Amino acid sequence: MSFRMLAVSAFLVLHFLAGFASPIVTGAQDELVKVPGGYLLKSNVHAVPEGGRIVHSSDSVQLIDAGGRVLHYASLSRSKPAFTRLNRPSSEVRRNLESAIVAAIWDAPSIFTFTSDWIVPPAPQKYSNQLLYYFSALLPPSGDAFIQPVLQYGPSVAGGGAYWSVGSWFIAGDTGYYTNLTQVLSGEQNVYPFILDEDEFLGTPTTHAWYCGFEFHQQESSLNIQTSETFNVAYVALEAYNAISLLNLPGQTTNIVNIAIANDDNEFSSPIPWTLFNDTADGITMKVVSASNGDGAALQIQYVGNSSSKQGLEGERVEEQLTMKTSRRH
Ligand SMILES: *[C@@H]1O[C@H](CO)[C@@H](O)[C@H](O)[C@H]1NC(C)=O
Ligand SMILES: *[C@@H]1O[C@H](CO)[C@@H](O)[C@H](O)[C@H]1NC(C)=O
Ligand SMILES: *[C@@H]1O[C@H](CO)[C@@H](O)[C@H](O)[C@H]1NC(C)=O
Predict the structure, then answer these.
(1) Residue 169: exposed, middle, or buried by beta-carbon count in 10 A (0-12, 13-18, 19+)?
(2) Closest CA to 227 of 207, 256, 244
(3) Measured distance CA(141)–CA(231) in Å, rounded
(4) What digits encode the pLDDT tens for the residues 272-307?
(5) Which phi and psi (to 5°) does residue 198 adopt?
């Protein structure tokens, strides 16, 4: 394992544990929202208008409209510890499936394109405002930013509800941007997230250009990003929030196939040495079905629950209690 790989793994371990360490402080009037990658203040999360693009440098991130006007500017403080945004509100007490993460990571020498096929899972049997984010993202080794086409189920700050939808996000430090969501059908189609290097057309000696989105939904879901950082860490993940029982998750395994990650010479080095992060406490795992790069490559997410039936039953009981409480209030 290279030094960089160790560094990335260390930050991801932090990422997973961050939720239970130092909580972030929120103003009374500002609300924390769950974005792909963790929690951000709602006031720091912005919709990208048509033709909008993002410009990310070492000390700021900006949203620019089609006419070149700056719609939003945020300075990025490097002195802040990375991933404070991943912290959970201090008031929340963790329970099973409330906040689950599994991931497969590859700290590649370089990345030029990253494409994959997500088979849209069947809708979960139960809907109780759970939020599921599935994504094939790119990060810089510092882990302080994400370029991510996201498949979502449930409601987020970007929209959504009891259906699957796709959209793109860019997150830098404690600021996030998202595109409109487009609904996709449960278990009946694939979606095709892509992240492409466009340095050839839009790069400069000191900046990189990226274009991400979903094939067949480019009009609505795509995002142009200019950044001074090098994004060479591939990150395939599921983040589940607010689930109560396994019924809030897809009832069968989820497959991510045809994962193709090209390097700067447009070569697909194989096999991909994925590092996996399972969530044993919640009983969700990420498995390498085939570590090849391109056709036939496959990762699989399995939802077995924690000590199977016991956890499922407890989840159901909690749900019953919640339902009783809610109905008493009405
Ligand atoms: C996003 O959706 C809103 C509401 O439907 C619409 O007004 C806006 O133009 C859309 N933005 C883009 C970029 O398509
Ligand atoms: C279930 O979760 C608990 C606490 O979250 C953990 O200590 C335990 O190891 C988990 N059980 C299994 C079978 O993974
Ligand atoms: C994660 O779970 C998968 C599926 O059960 C297993 O194949 C893999 O070895 C586990 N990996 C780690 C790092 O625990």
Answers:
(1) buried
(2) 207
(3) 7
(4) 999 999 998 899 999 999 999 999 999 999 999 876
(5) -120, 30
What is the SS3 assignment for 262? strand
Ligand nearest to the CA of 307: 2
**With a 6 A CB cut-off, is 307 part of the ligand 2 pocket?**
yes
CA distances from residue 175 to 63, 86, 185 in whole angstroms, order as listed: 11, 12, 30
Q: What are the structure tokens assigned to 161, written together?
A: 């509800």
d(CA 236, CA 36): 11
Q: Does ligand 2 have an atom closer than 6 angstroms to the CB of 165?
A: no
Question: Of 35, 46, 40, which Cα lies nearest the Cα of 137?
Answer: 35
Token reading at 60: 């700021």
Supply the pTM of this predicted model: 0.85
Indicate the top mutation candidate among 17, 303, 307 to test ligand 2's pocket, ranked by most ligand atoms within 8 A of CB. Answer: 307
Phi, psi of 211 (to 5 degrees): -130, 125
Q: Give the CB-side neighbour count of residue 138, counting CA atoms within 13 A.
A: 31
Q: pLDDT, tens digit, for every residue of 106-145?
A: 999 999 999 999 999 999 999 999 999 999 999 998 888 9
